[in-house]
Amino acid sequence: MSGIFEYNGGSIVGMKGKNCIAVACDRRFGQQMSTITTNYQKVFKIQDNILLALSGLNTDIHTFYALMEKEINLYNLKENRKMKPTTFANLVASALYERRFGPFFVTPIVAGLENGKPILATYDSIGCKSDLDDFQVGGTGGNYIYGACEAFFKPDMSPEELEEVIGQSLVSGCDRDALSGWGGVVYVLTEQKITVKILKTKQT
Amino acid sequence: MQYLDNYLQFKGGYDYTNVKRNELMKAQGFKEMPFTKTGTTIVGVLFDGGVVMAADTRATAGATVADKNCEKLHVLAPNIWAAGAGTAADLHHQCAHFNAKLKLQRLNLNRQSRVNEVITKLTSKLFPYRGHIGVALIIGGIDSNGPQLASVSPYGNYVYHPFQSMGSGSLAALGILEAKFQDGLTKQQAIDLAIEAIEAGIFHDMGSGSNVDVVAITKDGADYKRNIRSYNAKSYQKQIPYHFPVNNTPALKKYQFDIEKQELTEVGQEMEIIE
């Protein structure tokens, strides 16, 4: 038996650009060494300007996403307005810390655009928010993607270039991780639109 | 029983619903991922008229650096700061919680917060949790009783001393402090001493690194210098950065969601999948 975070596998990465932000994830859903499906969704649209990427134990990905969906829907109904990305980032941290002694086994990445400014936050499984870096990773292939990001990343990239760079970083990183891969999806968020690109990768 | 749902929603505190499940998983042999710890070297130095606190900026998750430039100096009150070592999530949330608690109290009582009350509140909170809330803090501030410096351990123990160091790099820092500390330092001398102590931690301890943050608290206010020293800037930059031409990465499908029109359309970039 390996770690709880290695049971299902999967990797996510987020990167800031110039007035845009991108998240990418792989598509594998496995049970230890078996692959169950290769089209598992790990990035969820919380709001038109907020994306939530989750990695870790897939059952907790599902549960945590449902919890955040509930929170934002209640917020919209009660406050009759949209939630700001920085507020959502704090909400995720609080929701994770609330379960400090019985945590969700997820490492989320929150990506959003607030007044054109990209907001990127990552957390450990108990809610330590880290939002000062220009790129963040999560999941079993995270460390390998870090290496690719450090090499490929440039500040203030355009949405098109950002899409390329994050895609290449994800694919390079996942190639070195046995538990991630089987495709990749890149989401680029700008003020006007969200583009979703399903990458063609080595199917191994 | 709807009132129960509402009550439970607002009761605050920790949620223990996942504990049983997690214990079962651990019994089956699964290992948890390590929480982000702050590794850390933090120091506090008392001087004539105030207190100086300094910290490094590295956060680690196991052996990986999770954050190269995190903030370990937290504001608890305008005249009281805390430097934290231990589990990063606990530090961040507990300090935010105490900040809010003290602010409410100041609004209610119209009095400045005091260091000894912060220590009392902290230790009262930490002791019942038997060390499971992993915060090791150095609390420094100036109030009506003068400048004070204390350290609080995760188990609820506290110590007042003119110089403190905590974290994995505390022994390295303590060497510098024990050798060079004197009573009656000036502000600049205290800052230099604190920076030197953190440097020792950064270079000799694996869990500490990156930059040095310093805050000097006097009765005129808190002077916070973020990244006053930087040692680990990237020494090598690729001369010609990687340039990826647009639409270079092959894609199976590409969709576009227009936010204003709330429409999802497929963008034509289909590639043939060669079997």
From TrEMBL, chain A:
Cellular compartments annotated: Cytoplasm; Nucleus
A Gene Ontology cellular-component term: proteasome core complex, beta-subunit complex
PROSITE patterns named in the record: PROTEASOME_BETA_1 (PS00854), PROTEASOME_BETA_2 (PS51476)
UniProt keyword list: Cytoplasm, Nucleus, Proteasome
UniProt KW Nucleus keyword: yes
GO biological process, one term: proteasome-mediated ubiquitin-dependent protein catabolic process
Function statement: Component of the proteasome, a multicatalytic proteinase complex which is characterized by its ability to cleave peptides with Arg, Phe, Tyr, Leu, and Glu adjacent to the leaving group at neutral or slightly basic pH. The proteasome has an ATP-dependent proteolytic activity.
Family statement: Belongs to the peptidase T1B family.
Subunit relationships: Component of the proteasome complex.
Protein known as: Proteasome subunit beta
Automatic annotation (TrEMBL), chain B:
Keyword Protease: yes
PROSITE patterns listed in its UniProt record: PROTEASOME_BETA_1, PROTEASOME_BETA_2
Keywords of the record: Cytoplasm, Hydrolase, Nucleus, Protease, Proteasome, Threonine protease
Pfam families: Proteasome
Localization (cell): Cytoplasm; Nucleus
This protein's record includes keyword Protease: yes
A GO molecular-function descriptor: threonine-type endopeptidase activity
Gene Ontology BP term (one): proteolysis involved in protein catabolic process
Main location: cytoplasm
Entry's Gene Ontology cellular component terms: cytoplasm; nucleus; proteasome core complex
Similarity comment: Belongs to the peptidase T1B family.
Main function: Component of the proteasome, a multicatalytic proteinase complex which is characterized by its ability to cleave peptides with Arg, Phe, Tyr, Leu, and Glu adjacent to the leaving group at neutral or slightly basic pH. The proteasome has an ATP-dependent proteolytic activity.
PANTHER family: METALLOPROTEASE TLDD, PROTEASOME SUBUNIT BETA TYPE-7
Entry protein name: Proteasome subunit beta
Organism (species): Paramecium sonneborni
